[in-house]
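Q&A log
Question type: sequence-to-structure
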Amino acid sequence: MYIDLNIPVPVVSTGTVVASKKNKGKTSEKNQQAQGQQIAVTFTPAQLTAIESRIDTLEHLGYTVLAFNQTAQKKIDAKTHVNTVDPLLQKLRKRQNITYLKRLTILLDEDSEKGFGLTTGNLPLVAPYDLIALLPTTAATFSQACLSYTVPSNLTAHIISLPLTLPRLPFNLKHTLVRTAIKNGAVFEISYAGALGGDNDPAIGNAGGSDGGAGAKRNWWAAAREVVRVTKGVGIIVTSAVTNIADLRAPRDVGNLLSMLDLAQNRAHDASTKTAQSLILRAQTRKTYRAVFSEPKVVIP
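Response status: OK
Response body:
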């Protein structure tokens, strides 16, 4: 059983808000979707065909659990946030041996230092997602992500992704912050898209100052080695984060790639199996009282 927790969702066009007659004029903007108002999300036939082809390829390579990743900029804003993963899953063909998960990644910058939008008021917006991830690009947001947002709650972020393709990490990976995040149950994500040139890395074009092609590869190798060194190989998951079928890699190839980062072979194997599976189970605690562990609903084949 192999797991890929980062299948990027393409950017789509959204329609107008359609309000239910029962609640018309009575609901707040923060609870639009929760109170019956829906926003039309449209995927083109080409986008759906490309995603179906990626899923077929991943299934052929041996992956059985896939998480579709929607990226939000700066913070969760009730006025602009639209869930594009649920409409996508409704249009995808069902596969008997594949489990689909929903993931939300918040890309954090200087404007995010005042808040990520992970508040009780926005709980209806994030509740549909199985996984919440944070991608900090400043020292302040990285510190907040490790110390505050990994604490067990119904808004816990269990994945901390890093902009590995930047010329240099915009912050130091302090041992105290990393150890605290891992102790709280969070994991650090290494996406092998950067090792292939980083063309589809969400940090490129958003964090600013990133390289592409050969430069992105060099940056990725240096930063990924630093992540392995600081974490000592504990609490690491590996994902694809690629949109091109030709860039997808088999699990054992990915394990060999991680072993070149001085990561032990058993932990390189666990990065796409045991560690990712444990993360999915822990993430279910967001839906329980004070994150008390209960029987999970996700069935992994």
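Response note: The CA atoms of residues 114 and 141 lie 9 Å apart.
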